[in-house]
Design goal:
Blueprint: H1 9-24, H2 35-51, E1 57-59, E2 65-67, H3 72-79, H4 84-101, H5 107-112, H6 129-139, H7 151-154, H8 159-172
Antiparallel strand pairs: 1-2
């Protein structure tokens, strides 16, 4: 599909979004990916997207004729897609919202409400899932409503408020 000439870029992008992106971000809500990992994922994705964009030729100052480079923002604008790293963050926050709305007896509640005690051991994992979420909250300036614990997830009276908070948080990150 991607190698065929004459197919519109919009159609190729829809096929890419429905087949390739779900594979790249499979179970992304549970990843504790470092920024370097997410950057590699975005680079891989952009290289794939550039393959099915039409090639434009340009003449360089040296007289050589070759393909014109397309910027990263231009790639996403032409295809109408967003980076995989943003999709992973969106999946993570939708997962948090789903768990908060679920009954208290399910296992993911215990995982979300887990709180680290003491210091991490030497050589242990420096970035846990909880720390990743906390750094996302702090980086977006939403630390005022976040006290570092998941107590807001425990109160059933604020479930509707949680839905709007999570959606606002995600849209603020874009």
């Amino acid at each position: 599909c991607f190698g065929q000439r004459g197919l519109p870029v919009g159609l190729r992008a829809r096929v890419y979004k429905s087949t390739i992106q779900p594979i790249l971000t499979y179970a992304g809500e549970t990843w504790t990916a470092l920024e370097a990992d997410l950057r590699r994922l975005d680079v891989y994705e952009r290289s794939g997207l550039r393959r099915f964009l039409p090639k434009r030729l340009m003449t360089f100052p040296s007289g050589r004729v070759g393909p014109k480079m397309i910027s990263n923002t231009e790639v996403y604008r032409k295809t109408g897609l967003s980076p995989c790293s943003e999709m992973v963050a969106e999946k993570r926050w939708r997962y948090i919202h789903r768990v908060c709305l679920a009954p208290r007896e399910i296992v993911p509640h215990g995982c979300i409400e887990y709180e680290e005690v003491g210091r991490r051991r030497r050589g242990g994992q420096s970035l846990t899932w909880h720390r990743k979420v906390a750094t996302e909250v702090k980086s977006l300036g939403r630390a005022a409503g976040w006290n570092g614990s998941w107590s807001w997830c425990k109160r059933s009276a604020v479930r509707a408020e949680q839905a709007t908070w999570v959606s606002q948080f995600f849209h603020a990150s874009k």
